[in-house]
Design brief:
Length: 757
């Protein structure tokens, strides 16, 4: 940097200007750090001939210093492919302090102006920033009591900010990198922002590098990097967009479409958002080999909860990433406590904090069990299951030996175990029994089945044999009072009498309903709510209500014909992606005090994003494989918005297709499931539990449903249509009565609370 234009300008100002003017001009010299975790050679070989900026290169980072004219008001913006926030760095009389995060721990501070970066309380020069593959860095600012979060990560994105009055005058068209189709046209995916007046456009990109000249941005195809964009004036913003569009169209090759779920629909406004979620997952998992380390597992410092394990594994599975899921599950299983003298013997860690394993009883084991069982549903690979099953079996057997009470239910030292954890215990026993049977371990299968039978009998006797009472104070089961929370919706799985189930779900729904779908009256125990990063500064905002995790609690409503209601809740929560600066991802949750969408980084955003995609595939679209027993359940609960839909998914790592076409008189479902052999269970609302068998050749299924009959056929390679099944509607009356009862119940509660139905 010796003799660079920036240094010369700054030095000249300090010699000739007043002290006040000197300070103001120095504050306008802003350093931009561009994380280039994977393209060191390209960065080091680059030469710069500009007289307006000077690159600072190092082994892992590339920095530019940019000189803006005095009096300008540049917009500073950083983003990755699944989240981005911006900050208006005006020419103020004082600097704004930033806090840098590595993982979810305080690491020091960054001060805009001369841009000093501190990590682990040690000053790091701009020429030696220790970015690591598989890591992410976060910046958080608190200017005047308002909070913004910036992401510095290894995954690239093109992010453009423009003033509000400019965006509608632009005829922008960016080619979709995944499909070759236009995904950004005009203002179709411009996101309005609340904290400043303006709009943001975000597009994931494969190869980018930012060169700043006179405040303009040029995009060239060097290698993967992190893009930060400055916009000063209206005309420059338009020039910036035209340049970026031309470079993208001319230089960047398309990315293959087959690696992630894909939505296409002419009737659903949510489709661009859903595809954005899918692309976020694709970009995130490009560095799959380092996935365990980016999750915070040793030796990388950081903090990760076992709560993320199931959703992240599930996201990999629905995208056909078998190897990555195997790697993650096997790595986690190796963290098991094997100290026979420990009270936590056989358990898995709840979290990893600064390379220290944190064990806390049964709950992490249940998360691992759910993740492994999800793998078993989507892939047939007994060799891998045999490798990790001993860790699961050891943990369950340890619970049976050390953690059960006289009712074969989970106990704790203080005797207070949330009711939903007892349900998780019953589910874990069932799942582990199924895995043992799949591996032919009949001794374990018998043990887990016997334990489940005893625990289930006592659970029903203690809690469900007596009337269930729900009030504003909580829920009464078997004479015991429990603080109501959303996860108690799953109690409906243990209520077998249909009308009793409807009444229970309706009351639970009314208890947690809010006009905008954000769970205004939610009351959950603190040990379930997740800690926020701001506990020292804002104790009253330490906890938040999970967003899509909360939505999964409402899934039982699909079975009593309330799919439009559940879909509306999905839209309510997803809407916050387009009304706040959470670009390319959904909020992890909402602060209880003010319902502001809350996210602390890409891990939580990934969890919520993964849960959203799984929720759509397995519940609304009803695609639920069980490959360990050669079964495939197709139970479509298609809301009106998705009545014309194309969707791709994966079975055993192979791409499959689903199409839905609905008219007033007929619903048609098309499935391309080549290579699947086994029993198919078709469970449509009017035709429940219809079964037929495929031998691996009849992959192009056609299922047509009318009010009078249902037919199943398939197409041969020659295009001939062969009938497999035909069913007349015989059992619809009881279902119709139950549906009408449920509709009346929910409408009654809506009227009572004066909420539009």
């Amino acid at each position: 940097m010796k003799g660079s234009p920036i240094r010369k300008v700054t030095r000249a100002i300090s010699l000739t200007g007043t002290n006040r003017n000197s300070q103001m001009m120095q504050k306008l010299c802003i350093s931009i750090i561009i994380s280039t975790l994977f393209f060191l050679p390209a960065c080091q070989q680059e030469t710069d001939t500009s007289s307006r900026h000077s690159p600072l290169t190092s082994k892992n980072a590339l920095a530019y210093e940019v000189d803006f004219p005095a009096g300008s008001n540049p917009k500073f913006l950083l983003s990755n492919a699944f989240g981005g926030y911006f900050f208006n760095q005006a020419a103020k009389g004082k600097q704004d302090a930033f806090a840098a995060y590595r993982g979810w721990h305080w690491q020091g501070k960054v001060v805009l102006g001369d841009y000093r970066l501190y990590l682990n309380d040690s000053l790091v020069q701009n020429t030696n920033i220790p970015f690591r593959s598989g890591s992410s860095y976060f910046l958080r600012a608190h200017p005047k009591g308002r909070e913004y979060t910036f992401f510095l990560a290894q995954h690239p994105a093109l992010v453009i900010y423009l003033p509000e009055q400019d965006h509608r005058q632009l005829g922008i068209k960016l080619i979709g990198l995944a499909t070759g189709d236009p995904i950004f046209e005009s203002n179709a995916l411009w996101y309005p922002t609340k904290k400043t007046e303006g709009y943001i456009l975000m597009a994931p990109i494969e190869k980018t590098n930012a060169l700043f000249k006179d405040g303009h941005l040029e995009v060239s195809g060097k290698a993967k990097g992190f893009v930060a964009i400055f916009c000063q004036e209206k005309s420059e913003g338009i020039t910036l967009l035209k340049t970026a569009r031309q470079e993208l169209e001319n230089q960047l090759p398309p990315i293959s479409m087959h690696t992630y779920p894909y939505f296409k629909s002419s009737s659903c406004e949510m489709v661009p958002f859903l595809n954005l979620l899918s692309q976020s997952l694709e970009i995130l998992h490009q560095d799959a080999a380092n996935m365990p380390y980016s999750l915070g597992f040793p030796p990388s410092p950081g903090d990760i909860s076992s709560h993320h394990l199931q959703s992240i594994t599930g996201a990999m599975l629905i995208r056909g990433q078998m190897q990555q899921a195997q790697q993650l599950l096997q790595h986690y299983s190796q963290l098991q406590n094997r100290d026979t003298a420990s009270s936590q013997y056989g358990f898995l860690p709840e979290s990893v904090k600064r390379s220290q394993l944190q064990y806390n009883g049964f709950l992490p084991l249940s998360h691992f069990c759910q993740a492994l069982f999800s793998y078993l549903k989507y892939f047939k690979n007994p060799e891998f299951i045999e490798k990790v099953y001993p860790s699961l079996a050891m943990g369950i057997k340890s619970c049976i030996s050390l953690r059960l009470d006289e009712h074969f239910l989970i106990k704790s030292k203080d005797g207070k175990v949330p009711l939903d954890q007892q349900i998780l215990w019953l589910e874990s026993l069932q799942m582990t029994k199924e895995i043992a049977a799949y591996l032919g371990n009949f001794e374990d299968e018998e043990l887990f089945q016997a334990t489940w039978a005893k625990a289930s009998w006592h659970f029903n006797k203690l809690y469900l044999d007596q009337p269930i009472k729900i009030s504003s104070a909580g829920i009464s089961l078997g004479g015991q009072e429990f603080q109501t929370n959303l996860r108690l919706f799953c109690l409906s799985d243990y209520i077998h009498e249909p009308y009793k189930k409807v009444n229970f779900l309706a009351q639970q729904y009314a208890r947690h309903q809010a006009p905008v779908g954000l769970l205004d009256e939610i009351e959950m125990p603190k040990d379930w709510l997740m800690d926020s990063l701001g506990e020292e500064n804002n104790p009253e905002e330490r906890y938040y209500a999970p967003a899509f995790e909360s939505l999964t609690a409402f899934i039982p409503l699909l079975e009593i014909y309330q799919k439009e209601l559940v879909w509306q809740k999905f839209q309510d929560i997803a809407q916050h992606n387009t009304t706040d600066e959470l670009l390319g991802s959904i909020p992890s949750g909402f602060r209880l005090t003010n319902k502001i969408p809350y996210a602390v980084g890409h891990l939580l955003d990934l969890r919520a994003t993964s849960m959203a995609l799984q929720l759509i595939q397995e519940n609304f679209l009803g695609i639920r494989p069980a490959l360990w027993k050669n079964e495939l359940t197709l139970a479509p609960r298609i809301p009106q918005a998705l009545e014309h839909l194309d969707y791709s998914f994966f079975l055993n790592g192979k791409k499959s297709l689903f199409q839905c076409r609905k008219t007033k008189d007929k619903s048609s479902y098309f499935y391309d499931v080549e290579g699947f052999s086994g029993e198919v269970i078709f469970d449509e609302e009017s035709y429940p539990d219809q079964r037929f068998t495929l031998d691996g050749r009849q992959h192009q299924l056609i299922i047509e449903v009318t009010t009078e009959q249902m037919s199943v056929s398939y197409l041969t390679e020659q295009g001939d249509k062969i009938n497999l099944l035909g069913v007349s509607r015989k059992h619809g009356l009881a279902k119709e009565i139950l549906k009408n009862t449920a509709d009346r119940q929910f409408e009654k509660f809506h009227r009572k609370q004066n909420i539009p139905f």
